[in-house]
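Exercise 7.
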Amino acid sequence: MAEMNGAETILESIQAAGADHIFMFVGGMVDPFLEPLARQSRLRPILAANEAGAAYAADGYARASGKFGPALMIGGPGIFNATGAIGAASADGVPMLVISGEAPTGNFGRGYFQDASPLGTDDLRTFDGLTGFSHMVPTPAALPQYLRDAYRTMLSEWRRPVHLAVPVDVQSAPIPDWHDSWLPTTRSPAILDATAFSEFAEHALTPSTRIAILAGWGTVEAKASAELREVAEAFSIPVASTYRAKGVLPEDHPLSLGMFGYAGNPQAVKCLTDPNLEVLLVLGSSLNQRDTMSWDTRLNPSLGIAQINFQASALGRNFPAKFPIQGDVRVALRALLDESNPWAARLRATRDARAQWADGFAGGPRFLDPASRDSDATPMHPARVIKELRDALPADAALLVDSGAHRAFAGHHFPVLSPNRFFSATGIGPMGWAIAAATGVACALPGTKTVVVTGDGCMLQNGIEVATAARHQLDILYLVINNAALGNVYLRAKQSGQGAAAFTILRENNWAQFADSLGVPGRTAATPQEFAAAVREFLSRPGPMLIDARCDRDVSTPIAPWVDALHHGNIYSE
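Solution. The predicted structure, written as tokens, is:
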């Protein structure tokens, strides 16, 4: 391999590690990357509207591709703009390689323009707390080792963003001794604590009939959807998912309970809190507040909770588990199916009894307030909008959901019919995440229609990233639930009075005109019929589109079981 400079070496490493896109915003501190990017064809550069958009897009790409998300921007003001985006990825354990360009090493601390080195504004300190690795490459000769350590940290047991600051002179300098073969593996080891798993099987699985599964994002990350379905069908075990893992078992499957937790479906809530439940098998969930109905005391099966997680530190951290098991979800599901193990025969023997018990939940009502799904009211009911969206889209469409009242409506009323086609930032959940993350999802899933459910408040935060879809002609539909309010905050504030509610009211902006001005066709829908027609138009041709759906801000979100759970107390208050 011919000798490369620093910028070329970094780009080569990204491609060699498996990514085929890089999300970026330009500036003087990354000028040496531009010509190498223009010369090559293996990495597709996606120019975002700002640095936050580039980082959010890298996040979306990582989630949808199962790889990692590369992002490139200048240091200092550039990467500071991306702070919230990097924090959101960190909270959700999303692997991202963030490269920031920095001032030349010879000018550190001398008042050089935009100096963010340790002698300037020192952006390393900011990102030391938000990433697993935040370091500056001190010399050209050090770049290969710094890259290797960055990849190793990013793809370790605890996956998260990493940040590598690269001075301009290091970007331009020749780099000796770089070999792609030195990169760490991007595959997680297929491990399972066999002793802990056998103890669980002996003491809980073998004697029980009434078993349920709660599948979290770790099931998606382990690419274990097929194994989950096989286990469910082989043993008639009903399956609920966390919000983030919606669709890991397609939600039209007879054994799907839908979603558990915040805005969860009634069958899932009833089954997992059933006093007769004997065993709950938790796959790849940290059992955080929203995944446990706010640490609901009713989540208490008689023979205990088994929690399987690749990350040992997650076991029992947020909610007690009688059987904590470190391991890969896919390996664990295969162990369940292994006929050589004694528990497999017992699970098959109790299959019919389990099916009869599970049918009492899986066959129940799927939605709260089902009449809202057929409402002809104007302004529109968000549940009707989401129903029309689901009815129109193909089964394999990708859906991204932002933060706000629309999160509850979309999560509750949109059955996901294919694995790894639902995405949402569920850790710190910044408003506007989905608008930009959709760029990365669309790049990771070419040929798939990508849809964003967002709100007018989120558009004020990050709506400018619609321009990125126009620039790169991505197949993204932006559905803006326009209720002229900050939905969830408004619903809470109005209970205190008009004075409090006034802080949450927005003007009714015309987001269709906004989209038109950015080169994305915009449509306004005031009725369900107008909305359905606009979705059909999006599906009929390539490229992006935005629908400004005028909705009622005063309708209640579908979270009654969640609110009810708050009155039952939680494991930390009893």
